[in-house]
Amino acid sequence: MYEERPSLVAGAVVWTNTPSPAGGGRVLPDGCMDLLWHEGRLLVAGPDTRAYVTDGADGPWAGLRFWPGDGPAWLGVPARELRDRRVELADLWPAREVRRLTERVGAAGDPARGLEEAVLLRSGAVEPPDPVLRMIVAALDAGRPVGALADELGLGARQLHRRSLAAFGYGPKTLARILRLQRALALARSGAPLADTAARAGYADQAHLSREVRELTGTTPGRLRG
After folding, report:
1. In the chain, which residue ranges form alpha helices assigned H by DSSP?
2. Which residue in 30, 87, 100, 188 is a FRET match for 217, CA 20 to 30 A apart?
């Protein structure tokens, strides 16, 4: 069973998941990075460009999902280095820091709350994310063309691409596709017909929506709407 709630960390979400005995699941791309807890281990999920198919590992999981662009500031690692990857936090940080954080989360009783508290404590020593990143996410989520966004921010196309790679793990066009996918899924799951979903989310038509969903998730809109 999957459950989530808004975090005390700005823009983040705290979640828990106990996988079904039936096996693996499908984590859809959303432009975010997650700090994960599973059986006493801390891991990091990088930004995905395609659906990540889980292996159905036993036992409950807990995670804190950062707002798009916020994860690299906390982790100290550019998002592009973690794109489509799941890695041990110990591969990114000194062993002593990871051990201290692991002990803190393990002692919390509720791992999800422990992750949240750990991130909140560390946030005071971390430079806040560049506010331009929030502007990029908001503009792309609203369907603004990438070229127009670069002009509005006073950035060249290459500058915008470099900053997007570091913050989100991929360029602005890929981020725009992923944000559009998330908009479409929210509409479809609210009961909107797929043709209406396609138009409101910014696709040319329902066929365009289906192609994009297939490419980014490996399945169909009908299956994803649940």
Report:
1. 71-75, 95-107, 111-123, 131-141, 146-153, 157-168, 172-189, 194-201, 206-217, 221-224
2. 87
Q: Of the candidates 185, 187, 173, which has an alpha carbon nearest to the alpha carbon of residue 143?
A: 173
Tens of pLDDT, residues 47-87? 999 999 887 667 899 999 999 999 999 999 999 999 999 99
pTM: 0.92
Kindly list the structural domains of the chain, giving each domain's residue range(s) and its CATH number in brackets, ordered by start: 2-123 (no CATH), 131-224 (1.10.10.60)
C-alpha 181/C-alpha 176 separation (Å) is 9
β pairing state of 26-27 and 13-17? unpaired
| Integer Cα distance of 203 and 181 in angstroms | 10
pLDDT digits 0-9 by tens, 158-170: 999 999 999 999 9
Tokens 């599973």 sit at which residue? 38
Q: How far apart are CA 145 and CA 189, in angstroms?
A: 26
DSSP 192-215: --HHHHHHHHT-SSHHHHHHHHHH
SS3 67: coil
Q: What is the largest CA-CA distance in the chain?
A: 53
How far is it, in rounded angstroms, from Cα 5 to Cα 14? Answer: 5
Q: Are 61 and 36 in contact (CB under 8 A)?
A: yes
Distance in angstroms (rounded) separating the CA atoms of residues 116 and 22? 29
Rg (CA), the chain: 18
